[in-house]
Records
---
Amino acid sequence: MANIKETFLNPIFKGNPISVLVLGICSSLAVTVQLKGALVMGLSVIIVTGISSLICSLLRNTIPNRIRIIVQLVVVAMMVILVDQVLKAYAYSVSKTLSVYIGLIITNCIVMGRIEAFALGNKPFASLMDGLGNGLGYAMILVIVAFFRELLGSGTLFGFQVIPQAVYDFGYMNNGLMILPPMALILLGCVIWVQRSIQKDLQEK
Amino acid sequence: MNTNSNTYTVIYSIILVVIVAAVLAFAAMFLKPTQDANVKKDTIGQILTAATFPGVEDAAILDTYKQEIESAILVDFDGNKVGELNIEECEVYGNSDLKRQITADPKALPVYIFKNGVTVVPCYGAGLWGPIWGYVGLEKDLKTIKAVRFGHKGETPGLGAKISDEPSFAEAFVGKTVGEGEVIFEVTKPANRQTENNGVDAISGATITSQALGKTLDQWFGFYQNYFAKNGITEVVDAVIDVEPVNSVEE
């Protein structure tokens, strides 16, 4: 049981897919302009990684080795399309802001990477936990980056104004650069920096 | 069992694909009505924005529409009424319906007339990466633009996407007029503008999207030209007509 707990918790901080494995950078730059979008994107990825890891792990002994990547891709694609369809039906406005990026979860390296590296060699429950943990680690970084980008770029959080008008009257201005992708990369760099200064074993000599 | 044999691989992939296809088909069918309702609500929301009711909350969109709409009619190219849209059921022409009207002959073009005097007409055309569309609210003279709302499928974020998410671009349309003759409407840089008040500035960095939007508006205003000419109420012109006979009497 301790092992499974470790499987779940490890990717959230120590083996975080974005800040340590540096996977899934692309989408984390694109969807972190606003907190709401980042949160929905994070949830979608958690569901996709968790359930596709589970399915692939259940099938792991039957999958023909030569077409295993294709089988994984079909399972992941199915999950992504399902998530996309559900969002279109029940969260239309969010689905419109995220537009193509939900579909692009298919190409997120975290999903395929975890299935190939973990789910194909481990039991279903452990794989589910590994998938959920990695999704959660991804979502966490997304939310951290989106928090700073929305706060400093638009002065809002979840669309609500948090920086009072009085501050603007003093001459404070929203940082336009925050809304653009380069700033997401710089913020991401800061997150990795913070993590490496806490976790000394990650530092290269 | 040998999971590496060719027969096994082929059968395995066939079964897998059939199962996945069944799951997706079921999900698509099951969710279709809800998705369609969302798309329709979104369309009505855009029409309402063009009719100067922006930012109506999702839940209130249908009620606001029913409350504020005076009539929703279909007109042909000559400007004659050929049909009516059901207001109670919030019947509107979606993007696929609009696309069909571009080549359709005879046309059935939707016109949404609101109680506050604003008439909303749609447009639909090709942008840079995908379709772009929009709703234009006109004042009673059916010439002066009161409010606009544009949408797009996938224009470049930060550049072409500004047609829908940059408030100042939509504001630039307010007070502009729909022209007659050669150039009905244009979206281009000031140096290239052929008319005084029948166009707005293009978005820098998004030349193709801007031009496409100008072309789309020009084309659709052209479709409606006869309707506009027949139904526009121009108070200023009336005043001039009143004055003229008086002058002739004096002479």
---
Amino acid sequence: MNNRLEEYLIEKGLFITAISSILIILLIITFIFIEGFPAIESYGVLNFVFGSTWAPLKGEFGVLTMIVGTLGITFLALALAVPLSLLCAIFMAEIAPSSMRRILKPVIETLAAIPSVVYGFFGLIVLVPLMREQFGGTGFSMLTASVILMVMILPTIISVSEDALRSIPYEYKEASLALGATQWQTIKNVIFPAAIPGVITGIILGMGRAIGETLAVIMVAGNVTQFPSSVLDPVRALTSNIAIEMGYATGMHYNALFGTAIVLFFMIIFLLVLANYFHYKKKVVIGGGYL
Amino acid sequence: MVNPGSSHESIQIAGSTSVQPVAEKLAQEYMNSHPDVRINVQGGGSGLGIRSTQQGIIEIGTSSKKLNDNESKDLKQYIIGKEGIVVGVNKENTVDDLTINQIRDIFSGKISNWKEVGGSNQEIHVIVREEGSGTRTAFEDIVMDEEDIRPESIVQSSTEMVKQAVKQDPQAIGFVSLAHLGDDVKALMVGGIAPTEHSVSKGTYLIQRPFIFLVKGEPESTLKEFIRWIYSNEGQEVIRSEKIVPFIANVSDDS
């Protein structure tokens, strides 16, 4: 009887813990929708999402330039970070001697522990002048923000990918080497393909961090609400827009900032669904992924 | 001194959101030393402050812009302090002095190269604060004169970041409030006058705005005490701590 009661309590306790985290997220989402909906409704969904003028004091709330800004910064950062971090992960998992790995791993993990304001300040003081001298313009640009984000998401992608590579059963490697494949052939044709689902998880996590990062981006992206004509033009991300203007916003402007959050919410959902689709697809095709 | 059950004297303050922080600080300090007085501070904008005071809804209205003749009718104005805004450039920049019109043209985009105002042949990089920021609003009110700030200006979300952005870019120009000016940037003279507490207080430095308390008719009893206290050393110290140039000279007007 006592055991059954204990089982019951533990079971319900775990259930409540699990459900409460979902409830909290639902509460936040509900709140964002309640606050943001009036702006989107009165300005019109299409005008809001596809409008290219953001002038809150004149009642213009088009966020398209910022959608472009967020996507541009994020994908540019991924394009820079993914090759670098995958090669790094392969090196650490397969090639580096364990003594070197013992140094590399904590160093890379330290990168993840640096607060984003430090990255942002570093970007403002060091990277922005460098960009200005190299490419002209103001130095505040999509590329500058992407380079900072690249450094910020490297540790995530490296750590998760390395774990994925290391968790491939040793038999795979033995079998490949026994067939006469070189180490590189083994990595390229056996280990890496088998680890792809885990690698994609790492990229998804990195992308999540890149989309959500606010402070560092505000400091180096220039925050201009115009369409960039090149990667060297300043842009404003959706998250930056909320953080920059929330302090003063009242009335419809305030609602429009929550509307910005709704747009961001749908973008993230869409990207996550897309990424999970590839994750799932690769798992089926390869058939060897245990991840 | 507080007798339980005794009624509080109360003062309602409303108006300019720029004046609101300093008014709140003044109210708080005053209530600390005068527990029998209740002061309630609200925003709403300078226009609302002026109207509500004229209609007698509130005791003190606040405004961060000069009143025209029609607005100032029946109202007694107490300038509690002045906020100066400094236009700053990089220390390597050879330009030292601009007129208000030149500054307006630079920020609106009509002037886009430093050589047009006597500097080197380089593009001007305009750095501004975000829409809604008090400093930006003040700058727009005083300098821009209905013209829009060029949309491709770089936006930085704090005074410190504006200063850092100007500090690291020889072609940059930005604005910060006088109280936050450090050694990072070179403060431009406006029409030959350098921005200092003195020149702002005297009114010779042009990019400035007054913080005004408005009272309908002659202030009496509690209200009079409060206004007198604002111009005391204690009150002026509070104003200075809120980064506003105090206006001690005005004390004589009160008595």
---
Amino acid sequence: MNRSPYITDAPTVSTIMFKVLLALVPGIAAYVWIYGGGILVSLTLATLTALTAEAVLLKIRQRPVKPYLMDMSAVVTAWLLALALPPLAPWWLVIVGTFFAIVIAKQLYGGLGYNPFNPAMVGYAALLISFPLIMTKWPAPLLLAEHPLSFMDQLHFIFSHSLPGDIKVDAITSATPLDYLKTQLMLKHEVSSITQAPIFGAFGAKGGELVTGAYLLGGLYLLQQRIISWHLPTVFLASLATISLAFYAIEPNHFANPLFHLMSGASMLCAFFIITDPVSGPTTPRGKVYFAAGVGVLTYLIRVYGGYPDGVAFAVLLMNMCVPLIDALTQPRVFGHK
Amino acid sequence: MSDIINFASNLIRNTFSKKATANNSLKDIFKFNGGVHPAEHKAESTTHPISKLMMPEKLILPLRQHVGHMPKVKVQVGDYVLKGQMLAEPEGSVSAAIHAPTSGTITAISEQVIPHPSGLPDMCINLVPDNKDQWTALQPVDWRNTDKKTLVDALRASGIVGLGGATFPTHIKLRSNGKSNVHTLVINAAECEPYITCDDMLMRERADEILKGIEIVQSLLGAEKCIVGIEDNKPVAAGIMTKALAASSTIAVKIVPTLYPSGDARRLIHLLLGTEIPNDKRSTDVGIQVFNVATVLAIYRYFEFGEPSISRIVTMTGNVAVPQNFEVLFGTPLHALVAAAGGAKTNTTHFIMGGPMMGFDLPNDLVPITKAANCIIAATPDLFAAPPPAMPCIRCARCADACPVNLQPQELYWFAKSDNFEKARDYNLFDCIECGCCTYVCPSDIPLVQYYRYAKSEIIAVDKAKEAADLARERNDFRLARIEREKLERAQKHAERAQATKSEVKSAEIKPVDDVKEVIAESIKNEEAPASTDKQAAIAAAIARAKAQKLAAANTSDISAEKVTVLPTAPETKTPETKITEAKTPETEAAELKAKLAKQALIAAAIERAKAQKLAAAQAGDAPKNIENVSATVQAEINATDALREKAKLAVEAQVSKSKESD
């Protein structure tokens, strides 16, 4: 019988997913430092929901539960979603989003390897459409907060949506810099004066840009480990930088500079952790370039002209739709073919 | 155009190659995409020199140890044969001879299990050695003073096949095809698969003989240049070879980086020369021929000493006490080889023939060593763990990065899995060389190569069935055309005879119309036609005669002749009036019909030719694509004449009804 090759040398799917989780750790650490330990609660909730939902669905679909749970892909989805949500998101929001991501976006399409859309982004988009108010209210970083919340306060807030003493919810939350910039621009303010607001840091959001930097660090680890190919993050960031630079060059008073776009919102998370999802992305090298460039341009356009503060989720989902076409049109030249 | 570019680039490269090969730098290498670096495991089997085996008790010689046709057995059970005596002679062009590896008695010629991935038995000759090892009278050839054609023809009887594992009969590769001139000979000594060291040891010990072999092949091919490609994990062999070849100005050793599958011929050519052989061409089409290093040595020994192909170097490695290389007589049972290597250790589960990337499981240790057996690995679960259950493909495209052919294995897997074979073919499934790199790097442990083997075999099976159906339809069409033609001729003859005897026959000018009309009348069997004139009487007579003849014909063999007569359909006979205006003159009709007959004869001839070609091709073992095209053309011609025939019939009918009206 011919069952060669007899030898293999490849990381397992679990190993790959584990390394992705590992690469998220610096980002999470920065997150905790800037926004407090509340994110750990969200991560735990999302992880438990994802694993439970995955297990139940696998059971219903009569698939082996253990090997598929052990592949860790559900945990990656859970973490990415939790990190995309506002830091003090109520417990039910995390659970609903994760449930949607795992059940609707992943398992109903056939589970690991068969989902055409990035599950975390589907969950995020579902929440953004359903609960826009909660999704756009971000707490100020601890160092800026009028009333810095302790971990217990945050825990309490996540589960009961109430704050100690006479602190009002509005007092601890505000719009994100991306959102703030957009609304202020509509009020005919100029970029240079808007960015004087305390929520802006050197490049992006004050404090938030540190988290973004930590994601970049994790992304470089993934590149070094050859878990992701350089095409996607490089082209995405280049594409986002190029289009923002073009707009910025034409009218610097009306459009934010490229660095702001690179360091704000979910840009870095998207570059290294979201568009690098292999299942919902293209497989050919050229396809990856087109895909990442498309996500970059769409992200910018949605940020600047769309109705939502950040454009990453919808940009990724829109480009996910194009993947079969991109793959079919970017087949590389086979050896010996013209 | 690409040929010209290739030629030009080769020319430029040739000018610079001497300098590059002189210092053996890796800079002059033209890398291909992909490839993998499996653990080599070559050191284990290179500590001992090549050894010989004790004479086994019995040799089992499969008749088919090569690609191509089974040779014809020339001996009988009970015959005493001498070492080197031909036991089976090649039959057809792609075939190789089998020789007695030692002297002894033929004890059986029967089906036995052979070392083949299918595990199916095949015809084998059993030879029990008499331990005298007595040579037959060998006939060395003075290869320096013999013309090339004679030498190549002589090779046909040598039994030499490609010893790298492909086992393609060597004389075919040396035969001039008249089209292209081979300018470069590539000697494949890359030996890229893990564990295998037979070529390595051969180069270490017999470099001088290899050099002479290369000179012979070079002269036979007329190749002005030769490059020996050796992977850089064989520094000892490379050093010895470089030294041995130093005197030659046309042969150079070129070191290639260790990367599986550099030993694949097309990959090696690209590495050494930068030439990418087009997928639909052979390397000889661009002037390059590849020989394995062991094959050229066998060629030398055949010409110099008259020794046919009766043994080869085999690496016996893996879970045995003393892994090493042996010179093994073909037909030696595997257990004898294993015993010579100190025996397999207790936890050995089975044996693998070939390397761990492309080899296959042997059914047991009784199977013989054949010309294809470059390496035998004693396997244990520790060495080759059973793969874990496959996970779903996560489209990570690591396989695409590893594919040396630049295919998209993840897409091919998807198509093969869903039996979408057309799509798999579109994505160039048949360019896959089954090297196993994709499976090697797959995080989901999907047995990708197995999916491709499955899809290929399914597609080939479907193609074969379709080809058979096409051939059958072609034959049937031809037969129908022949029957129709014979009928027409017969009817015409009868009508002529009838007219000659009848005095009231109409004037000569409408005669052709009559002829045609009678034929049609007969075939239509229009019983409702009013019978009032002389013409009708003549027709009736003709029909009667034709019927009688048909009956006779049917009695002999042609039963389906009946079917032909009812070809024209009823609606056509019912509305002749509408066609009147379009009708051509009787002369044209007759001329057209005659032209049709002539054309049918041509078609028949063409079909016969195509058939003969196809048959010849089938016998030769490979079916050139242009045969398919020929039969397609024939089919088109048949269709065209069918249309013409129908048109002529309609026109004649119109004429008939017109004459009826005038009556």
---
Amino acid sequence: MKLTLKVWRQKNANDKGRFETYQVEANEHMSFLEMLDVLNEQLVSEKKEPVAFEHDCREGICGACSMVINGQPHGPQKTTTTCQLHMRHFKDGDTIHIEPFRAKGFPVIKDLVVDRSAFDRIIQAGGFISVSTGQPVDGNALLIPKDVAAKAFDAAACIGCGACVAACPNASAMLFVSAKVSHLALLPQGKVEAARRVQNMVRQMDEEGFGNCSNVTACEAECPKGISVENIARMNREYFSASFASEE
Amino acid sequence: MQLEGKIPPGQLAEKWTQYKSTMPLVSPDNKRRLEIIVVGTGLAGASAAASLGELGYNVKVFTFHDSPRRAHSIAAQGGINAAKNYRNDGDSVFRLFYDTIKGGDYRSREANVHRLAEVSANIIDQCVAQGVPFAREYGGYLDNRSFGGVQVQRTFYARGQTGQQLLIGAYQAMSRQVSLGNVTLYNRHEMLDVVLIDGKARGIIARNLVTGEIERHSAHCVILATGGYGNVFYLSTNAMNCNVTAAWRAVKRGAFMANPCFTQIHPTCIPQYGEYQSKLTLMSESLRNDGRVWVPKKLEDAKAIREGRKTANDIPEEDRDYYLERRYPAFGNLVPRDVASRAAKVECDAGKGIVPTGLGVYLDFASAIQRYGKSKAHSMGLENPDAAIITKLGEEVVEEKYGNLFEMYEKITGENPYKTPMKIYPAVHYTMGGLWVDYNLETNVPGLFALGECNFSDHGANRLGASALMQGLADGYFVIPYTVGTFLSKEIRTPRFSTDSPEFEEAEKAVTERLTRLLENNGSQSVESFHRRLGKIMWDYCGMSRNAEGLKKAMGLIRELREEYHKEVFVPGSMNEYNPELEKAHRVADFMELGELMCLDALNRNESCGGHFREEYQTEEGEALRDDKNYAYVAAWEWTDTSKDPQLHKEPLKFEAVELKTRSYK
């Protein structure tokens, strides 16, 4: 299949950036990233700079790949990361627009690569359970109902890719933050410091320049792991109850 | 040079307890003065950084990823082993120890493996406390499943994403230490050299991957947790950026590489489908709990399937060969990985392969779907349910167990594994070899430690499923916090190191020169094209089966390729910018040297054991034939210089608690 690619090229954070057009010959069995590999091989053979894009596991779990394909983070296929998107979802002759995740909280580093370290700082602000190595009791001393474990897992399945932010018109990080708040608040071992956690994480989220939630739910629609906006509701509840009950 | 394993005295089961209660300690006040560098933030690195930070050491942790959470531990699917005996099925610390030694074909160190089995139970408790959402039963208790090479159920899991959940747990524990100021995180930094001062590891040279700046970082000791080197084969289940550079740079500074030829070929991966392919995808071993592996009995059926004239569903039951169940009745589909992989190769070599390339076999869930469907119908009180209902109920149970894996398979192949059997073939997955370490996980370079897949110590010639997660976390949470003290207790008077010393100067200069050489090379071929060619040589001659002639040939080919590389490779861009091609070029250069050493090691080991199958050494039935008299040792290789062969040092393996037997899963 012959494709026309309009790819965002930006040398570094200070460069203004622009779309460049490339022609590439792909086949339907390739993953989207393998198609970009073909483009990059082509560029290298012409002694040009290849397109910088982030990728690693290519199994849909590391969360490294971060690009907007034809206006959608991770492209057109639901609950699929870019690395798991295959070219059979495109047609011969298609023109494909590829650009980086765009948000104030995610400054561009180069081409399609953005800086998502804000997410790490939000986790550092409170996305953990304060337990040191060697302290715990037996794993079965704490009984956790099957459905509670499953629900916590659903929230914990977040891969931290940032597609939720890229999809949101407000560039809000609420889905990411609420997934972590929910994962830990649902479990008995995480309840102890739940109030403190949600307040600290929300504070950090605001400091990082992410916007607010206005219930568009584009985040859920584009999330490659299908994280539910229910988590946002849960986080809001946790946050309000923590704010009212807090003595700090 | 005599390699000293530093195994503590006493009974096997007492060694670790004894060690912990008699080792020298570092007082809290002194810990605050000491600095530790941890390279890598996978399970081993993140758990080590977290635990050492909790103890009060000053930890600097480095990852080349944008976030520590991207390390490839994240992709581990199936589970983590622990000798909890929650199933009441006869598990124990000794049983886990024994299974691991046997699974590794008697090529690992008893004391290290026993310690691993001892701390395994603590890992589960630790992870539960961190909030890892392990699978639970209706009563709220932890659930288990089975993995290859064992006859008990000791594997804990979180759907098919156990690695992800464990890594997030370790990442969060480490993030807590970052917030407390005990750990400093350097993301997007790649270690390109280790710095030795008076023979001890005292720092690293790292490149800031955003600005391209070369940085010097000092500490009282250096811990490498930088994973395995499976990407030397180009195609593997490793992430694209997995590489050997950190470990290889240590080798260049005097650390020994142990058993580099011990690579694990995982039996259940999605077969290769095209020349442009960039990686192979694993389908978890847990699938072999319920999936049955088969090929057609008749060659003409296999041919018809390959040519698209027939499908799996056209082959009647009596014409299918469930070859693992036939050859290994005691373990059936759950034989260890090396055995299952070789068996698949035997069938495909005989012309029974079922994909167009001839390299693929079936993994079939139809029986499991029927079994679960009937059981579910029974529990729902349905009398005489029809076939469609049974299938539907069975598919629901299978979905609950393996849903995400089935979905991933469908996304990649475009085929529905509930309706037609999966197609699988072995692929490079894990490297048992790695930096040589003693009982303290310290390399032969004082102050340089290696954890997780980066070291060689626990899995011998073949790793059992769900044991990599166990080892990574054991090393990071429960071993290094103790053993690092043995080294650091002698360093409490050592002041912090300035990075202005000649040693740092020299190391930085060497790194800059290497990178400059690559950038200024006036070649015309891409890094990728060389990596592919290297991978093909490695797979053809140092892959699932090896022979002396092929290995010698491969060494020559690699040497030629290496020369060509340094003449012909083209690296675009410059040093002082974000430049992924440059990163890759440096990594591939190191793979080119490692590859030759792997062949040399495989050539030296005139026996077959675990994942190392030398065609010259096999039983009449085609099973691996070990030579305990001559090869019950760890082969630790010392790098001399590029023009000469590395030098071999042997650490004899002594077995006191187990008797060396022919490994049988029949």
